[in-house]
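Weekly sync, protein design subgroup
Attendees: M.S., D.O., the rotation student, P.L. (late)

Item 1: inverse folding check
M.S. brought a backbone from last month's batch and wanted to see whether the design step gives back something sensible before we order anything. D.O. pointed out we never logged the input encoding, so this time it goes straight into the notes. Structure tokens as presented (189 positions):
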């Protein structure tokens, strides 16, 4: 798909999302359900970047609950993805802060893995969580949710160029940190 085709597809998706937002603002529950299905993956990826697995479903639910409560205050229906992403980041921050106050632990408690894959996945997730904030969400959306650059741009409100730059720099940094992590565990080859 060419850049022009991506731009058209992104514009059409934004217009469709705006139509759903306006319908939901007028009480159409099925429209809000469609918005949930469309954006739940993005919210999940944002939560996965910082929260423990047990807290992710709660973060997604709380994000959409807050969005539904405040939907009438959204003035630009086209900005729904960006607006929802901001709510999600605030919810994640609140849950993470509450977790630290309750347990005194900022990191997930150590649990023995049953399989090597789970160990590697947790290590990779830990590295993704350590990325700078500018890269963390876009990398999580790409790596964990398999979203394309234009999909990430649409959901976050960033320009396609910004997403490309953030993905390039974030994935490069992720690769370096993963390589360093493997070398620290297994030693130099």
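Designed sequence read out in the meeting:
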């Amino acid at each position: 798909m060419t850049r022009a085709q991506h731009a058209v597809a992104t514009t059409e998706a934004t217009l469709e999302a705006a139509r759903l937002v306006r319908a939901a603002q007028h009480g159409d529950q099925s429209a809000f359900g469609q918005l949930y299905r469309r954006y739940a993956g993005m919210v999940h990826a944002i939560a996965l970047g910082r929260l423990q697995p047990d807290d992710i479903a709660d973060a997604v639910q709380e994000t959409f609950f807050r969005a539904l409560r405040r939907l009438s205050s959204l003035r630009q229906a086209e900005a729904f993805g960006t607006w929802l992403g901001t709510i999600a980041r605030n919810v994640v921050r609140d849950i993470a802060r509450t977790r630290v106050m309750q347990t005194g632990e900022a990191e997930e408690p150590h649990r023995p893995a049953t399989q090597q894959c789970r160990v590697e996945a947790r290590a990779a997730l830990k590295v993704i969580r350590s990325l700078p904030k500018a890269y963390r969400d876009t990398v999580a959306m790409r790596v964990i949710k398999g979203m394309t650059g234009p999909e990430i741009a649409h959901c976050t409100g960033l320009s396609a160029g910004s997403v490309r730059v953030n993905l390039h720099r974030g994935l490069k940094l992720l690769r370096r940190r993963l390589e360093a992590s493997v070398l620290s565990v297994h030693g130099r080859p």
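Discussion: Helices lie at 3-25, 29-48, 53-70, 80-103, 116-130, 133-143, 149-156, 160-186. The longest helix spans residues 160-186.
Action: P.L. to compare against the previous round before Friday.
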